[in-house]
Design a protein that fits this description.
246 residues; mainly alpha; 67% helix; 0% strand; globular
Length: 246
């Protein structure tokens, strides 16, 4: 049962990784430039903006950081309490995330793509999406699927190359199953970004519609998570050396 359970959870994480690409397409191309899920990029953008780089602004980055922080705090407190009470925190967290993304979609209805200046509505939508992504990051961290945090792919890509026949890193777990998982994670992020940019480009779809699509996808994943055995989304112990490379 365990291999099947782990496989199901892995593909849940792949689906969520793809939605991250979609989210960041909206965030970067419409709301900023700003990142709402990948806070590493957000920190860099804020640093560049403070250094005076043209076309970048601190305000959307701050809105994202505040939203992300609030989402992380609330999700951490809620999911910890839910687990103690024996409730299915993973599924419920995904439902909350979908609701927040839907709320952001309503706030973003007919919002203009970023131009010379951003409005308060851009900042509000960025904060709402980042709030949802704060919840997402806590949920996926607690799920503890090695190498699949769903909001970054650098480590998955490193492990993919390091564990391949080209490198044969002895500290990275080999095997086709591990390589497929890592490759799927990287491909999902790329696909999400590509699809999101295509949907927004040339005003094919209103950014609000794209956010609604993302919310619907997350809700579908939440419904699918209902069929996961409770043990597969139990809180994992802190990552030890090499854990992310498995």
């Amino acid at each position: 049962m365990k291999p099947k359970r782990d496989s199901l959870l892995t593909w849940v994480m792949v689906a969520l990784t793809m939605t991250t690409g979609l989210v960041e397409a909206v965030s970067f191309l419409v709301l900023g430039p700003v990142f709402t899920a990948v806070q590493t990029g957000n920190m860099l953008l804020m640093g560049f903006a403070l250094a005076g780089v043209t076309g970048l602004s601190v305000a959307p980055c701050l809105a994202s950081l505040v939203g992300f922080t609030v989402g992380t705090v609330l999700a951490s407190r809620y999911e910890s309490r839910a687990q103690v009470r024996g409730r299915r925190w993973f599924r419920e967290a995904l439902v909350v995330e979908a609701a927040l993304l839907a709320t952001a979609a309503v706030a973003a209805w007919q919002i203009e793509e970023r131009g010379e200046s951003l409005t308060d509505r851009h900042y509000m939508v960025a904060a709402l999406v980042a709030l949802a992504m704060g919840v997402r990051n806590v949920s996926t961290l607690r799920a503890g699927v090695p190498g699949m945090p769903t909001t970054v792919t650098t480590r998955a890509f490193t492990a993919l190359i390091g564990g391949s026949p080209l490198a044969l890193d002895s500290h990275i777990s080999p095997g086709a199953r591990n390589e497929i998982r890592r490759g799927a994670s990287v491909a999902a992020m790329f696909t999400g970004g590509l699809l999101g940019a295509w949907m927004i480009r040339d005003e094919r779809l209103d950014p609000a519609v794209v956010l609604l699509v993302i919310a619907a996808l997350v809700l579908i994943v939440a419904i699918g998570a209902t069929f996961l055995p409770r043990e597969s989304v139990a809180e994992q112990p802190p990552a030890g050396p090499g854990r992310w490379m498995r």
